[in-house]
Fold this sequence. Notes:
Number of domains: 2
Bound molecules: nicotinamide-adenine-dinucleotide
CATH topology of the largest domain: Rossmann fold
Shape: globular
Strand order of the largest sheet: 9-8-7-10-12-16-14-15
Mean pLDDT: 95
Low-confidence stretches: none
CATH architecture of the largest domain: 3-Layer(aba) Sandwich
Amino acid sequence: MNPRLNIVPFVNVDNMMKLVLRHGVEQFITGLAAQIEDDFRRWPSFDKTPRVASHSPEGVIELMPTSDGRTYGFKYVNGHPKNMREGRQTVTAFGVLADVGTGYPVLLSEMTLLTALRTAATSAVAARRLAPRDARCMAIIGNGAQSEFQAIAFRSLLGLRQFRLFDIDAAATRKCMRNLSGFDIDVTPCRSAEEAVSGADIITTVTADKQYATILSDNMVGSGVHINAVGGDCPGKTELHRDILLRSDIFVEYMPQTRIEGEIQQLPVDHPVTELWEVICGTAEGRRDARQITVFDSVGFATEDFSALRYVRSLLAGTGLYDELDMLADPDEPRDLFGMLLRASKGPASDDDRAG
Ligand code: NAD
């Protein structure tokens, strides 16, 4: 990559797609999952805070910062369920990595695709410890933008080959089936959520609706099932009936954030939950027995985006799959910022000023 300190590499959507395809979606998700898992293992070394959310009746805009003391990262992300009906994405994002030592950004990247990839990778990382060992079949309820990524992550990391799809919009299910047709998996469209969960060892809920929804009711969840609850990720936006939570063991990313945003906003604040990093580090149990119902109450946490940005950065060298952004003013003499402006008024900025 470019060693010039004032130049920041920028990965746009086109280059992100090229980067993912160069490695193959499955390999990319597998590598990303390993990075996410490694970073969960060193959980105490991260600055952690619930994300900073700005809510409106239509959706939410959030900032998700973290740092490991050497590198700082944040993601800007929105969640607007109504967008899809207007031809826009429900979720879009971009993110930044910066060097803690200088405070200078070292990467700017699109994160709409990257969020879908990291969300699916995190779901699979959790499911490897929480799902039944012999899980074969997953129901995916909500067949929108995130859905194929979830299927591919569970195929790659858990070896699942059977998927049962349901969406209130049959066109979404058809789109999902079409996109998954080349991935050597068995995909069954279903007419209801009840039909989709029948025989499934894992249930992924990944719908978008800004309300306390009941995508799964208590009678739909049999013993031994793992629920990967992805869509409920905002105050007033949940997917599971409360009674399911009361008979499940619940696993979360970062408890203070999930209490605000996750399925557990429906429960008293002292209801016991386990943070995923503890299961990954072996200090807490994941799945204990074949009859236990486990819920991964996923909302998405800043460290996963940090891991994703670092993973992308590690793959960039020598690819040319980035633009060089002239993002940082860098006069030859650092205190002469105004002088740089004056010199620019007389013509193109001097080489001295630009070279840094
Ligand atoms: P999307 O709008 O592309 O797709 C959502 C799909 O859900 C649509 O096809 C819609 O028809 C379907 N749906 C809505 N209500 C339904 C119902 N009752 N039953 C079945 N299907 C229903 O959205 P997306 O980008 O796929 O995101 C899905 C959800 O995941 C959003 O709520 C988003 O906020 C959330 N999300 C969570 C994380 C995380 O880390 N936990 C990350 C990204 C997105």
